[in-house]
Each structure stands twice: as C-alpha cells, then as structure tokens.
Amino acid sequence: MAKMRYQLLIILMLISNSINSQERRVITTAVPFLMIASDARAAGIGEQGVATSMDNFSQHWNPSKYVFSESSSGLAFSYTPYLSKLVNDIFLANISYYKKVDDRSSWSASLKYFSLGDIDILQNPLDIPIIENPNEFTLDAAYSLKLSENFALSVAGRFLLSDVKLQTFDSETEAASSFAVDISGYFESDTKSYRNFDGVLRAGFNISNIGPKMKYSKLNNGTESFIPTNLRLGSGFEFIFDSNNSLAVTLEINKLLVPSPSVEVFNSNGNIVAYRQPDIGFLQGIFKSFGDAPDGIAEEFKELTYSLGFEYSFNQSFFLRSGYFSEHELKGSRKFITIGTGFNTSRNLNIDLSYLISTSDVISPLENTIRLSLGFNFQ
To answer: In this structure, are residues 144 and 153 in contact, taking their beta carbons and an 8 Å threshold?
Structure first.
C-alpha cells in the first residue's frame, strides 16, 4: 500500500497543471520527464549538454552536434532510476541512434520511456489486485546540416504520449498526446593555440518541445496542460594542455517558455490565495512567458536555471566530471552537485556513470541515484 501511495502522488504531480501557492509560483507542465537528463554524461556535468562536445545522446540536448562526429553512426542506451529510495520500478529509459549522411549532414532518432511502475489496486482487502502501469513516452527524429565548417542547424519532430490515467478510479480521464518541434544550432571553433595550451570554443542553443497542449480529461472540453517548451543557451571552452590531457568548462542557462502562474485565485473573503496559469494557446504562451511573471522582471530572472560543468579527459579514454545545477527557491528549488566518470574501452564502446548529491532543502527524486549509459560508435 505504501508503494501505491507514493506512486499515486507522483502521478498527480505529473498530470496536474496545479494551482501554485502565492509564495512559490512554480511553473508546471505535462510530461515533465522531458526535462530530466536521461544520459549519465550530461547528468555528471550538472545536467547540461547544449554546448558540450558531441556524444551519442546529443539528440536530447542538441542534434546539430551529430554532424561533427568522427564516426559514421552511433547507438546508445541509458537507464535512470527515479525515486529509487522508495520504489524500484519507476525509471526513465532512453535509446538514441544517429547516422551521418555525409560530412555535412546527418539524421538521428530517439525513444524515451518513463515508467511509473506497477500499481496494485484493491477495492476491498480480499479482492485480487488490479494492476495498472501508467507510463509516458516520446519518439522523435531530427535532421542536421552544416551551414559552414564550424556551425550547424537542426530540426526535430517529436510525438508525445502520456498515459498516466488510473482507469479503475476515473473513466473520464484518458491518455493525452501531442506533437512538438525542436530547432537547435551548434558552433565549434577550430583548435587555436595560446601561450600555454590549445583551445576549442563551443556554443549552442535549442528551442525544444514547441507544440500544442495536452488534454487529459473528456469533461468540460478537457483539462489542457502545456508541454515543456524550453530554451537552452550554452557556451564552453576546452583547454587542451597536451595530447593526453584536456579540461572542458561549460555554462548553460535554461528557461521554460511556458506561462508563469499569473492569474489570481481568490478565497471567499476576496483575498488572493494562489496563482494559476492562464488559459491561452501554446504559441501565445511562448511569447507571454518572457514578461508575464506577477513580480515583473525580477521574477522572470528567477525562472532561469543555471548549470556549470567540468569534464577532464585523459587520452579521450578516461573522463572525470563534475557540475552544479541551481534553480531559485520560489521556482522549484532544485540545487545539486553532480559527479561522474566515463570510459572509452575502445573506439566503439563508451561507458558513463553519474551520481547526484542534492544541496537543497527540497528532496530530489534523483538524489543518491547512479545513472548508467552505454554508447556504441561505428566507423
């Protein structure tokens, strides 16, 4: 029964476009698992990847990076336990694949699956349990093209399905679906020589999940929730000390392009008790998200998250990683340190591990969780 209570709580969090308290105006969306770093390399450097060097999981962060790959194709798998302190069957799994068409273009695809575990439902103590398995998944494909030797753009399309209903309790709720588009770009300079080291400058952006809202309920024309349309901006520099040793430092800034909870909610005495998101279309919501916070520009800056990551490489075969992620206390209060490591056992196999240490008063569902990724490159 404890397992059921915990998982029901998570389901309510996932499908709720909830009313937020006056003090904590947290932006909520459908399918929030899309904001979780599904691969261990990115998770080890502060949950970032829009401006890091290319890897097999670039589909999630910035597909434009694939055209800079030295391999002709690659395949990758990752597994992320979720709420591992409480249950053992909630997880995020990801599979990604890319293929270079030529030196200037590539295509790629990925599948993400988020399982909320098996829920045993008993109407009466002596009944045979009814097992339900709420889950969500996305399937996407992207095309990337080099516009110059150092800069590339990509466009991705995505199908989203969220089936988190408990049909036993609520026959009026149904699975919700939507589609979305990503637009991203990536810059990687030539290696330049400085006094004591060589260096490579990188920068990237990704506007992801541009698409219609998701509708869960059949009643009253349905309750609609925004999907996590998101803007990532990042830049980094790799210090190359010699042929074996290098250190990459990357900064990433992130903003949800979803309306703030700005509509006032009053109690019976006429006092403001909370705020909720406005009922507007997704395109209007994207543009409105830059200036709709009730406390003005100061609150808009609070909606940004920041990530600083470090990756040390020895001979491109052994990696040490660390990072820090920060979100304002009134917007979710996610703050954590990440560490990770990686091994290239050959030119064809990459193994990455990461670990998250929360520094916030708010417990992270990924705290003390080891994430694992495997990547295969083909010449």
So the answer is: yes
